[in-house]
Every structure is written in C-alpha cells, then in structure tokens.
Amino acid sequence: MGEGSFSVSDKLADAILNLVAQVSPTREEASDAPRAAAGRVMRVASTKAALAAGGLALPTGPAGWLTILPELLAVWRIQAQMVSDIAALYGARHAPTREQMLYCLFRHAAAQAVRDVLARATDRWLVQEASGAVLRRAAQAIGLKLTQKVARRGASRWVPLVGAAGVGVYAWLDTRQVARTAIALFQAPAEDIPAARQPS
Fold this sequence. Notes:
two-stranded antiparallel sheet, mainly alpha
C-alpha cells in the first residue's frame, strides 16, 4: 500500500479513538421490554444513518472524495448514540466503556482487530478494559481494514444518485448489525458488563 493508504488509515484510527473516547449521554432508561425498545432505537438510527450517508454521498467526482470521512464520522456518531441508548435500555448503570463501544461499532467489520478487548469467561466472551496502546493498535487495524472500503466508496462517488443510494443502503444495514452486536452484549447479566472507568 502506498503512503496515501497509510495516511487514510491513520486518520481513520484517530477518528475512531476520538469517537469511542467521547461516549454520548443517553436519554433512555432501563426498559421492562428492552428487546422491543432496542428494536425501535435500531430502526430510528438505521434510517438516520442511511439518510446521512446517502446525503453526504451525493457529490460526485473529485468533490465526492472529500465527503467520505465526514460520511463515516456522521454514521459512526449515530451508531455510537444508538449503542449508548441500547446499553441504557438493558439497564447498564454506566455509559458504555471505550472498549465496549469499539467492540459494538466494529466487531462485524473488523473482528480480528477487536479481539484484544475480549476476555474469555467460562462459556462466553466478555469485553475487557484495555490499555491505551491496545486501543490504539485495534483502531489502527480497523483503520487499515476500512481503508479498502473507503476506496470502494470513493469509486461510487463517480456514479450520481445510484452511488448515493448504495451508500445509504450499506449504512442502514451496517447500523442494524451494530445494533445486534450491542443487544447481544448488553442483554448479558449486569454483573457481566464491566463498569466504566472513573476519570483519573
């Protein structure tokens, strides 16, 4: 890969680390029917992500390349809010940790990259606290993996409307996958979910 690829992956890694470090507060509260409530949150977030991604993908040609990172960030912010809301619906006492957020947002897209934030506990995997170096390594691996997707998205910027529609559909599907990962994580018993670290 050329120097440009590393530059893109480094920018993505920095964006990912900034995103998971600033967990959005939620207005949701623990629900008696969290699965149904999480489904509602997922549907709203999927629609928002599709509209945001599709709208930002409308510019074509060289100008379209400039909207790729803003598009990814817009979708990730919507997804991060959704993860925070789902955690609250399932009764999480704290906002999701950086590790939980990283896992939920990118497990389906870069499973190998998030393996260092997992710990085996009896018959299931738990998200564990990770050092800054481990998080940076994971974000860099995710950034490298996503660089290939960025190149494909850039190609779609040359096809007006059709490319934007495809990007919107992808964001919709991607957001639903993030929701499924968050539901699977936060429906675990509360004692299995690590509490957020207190600021030092």
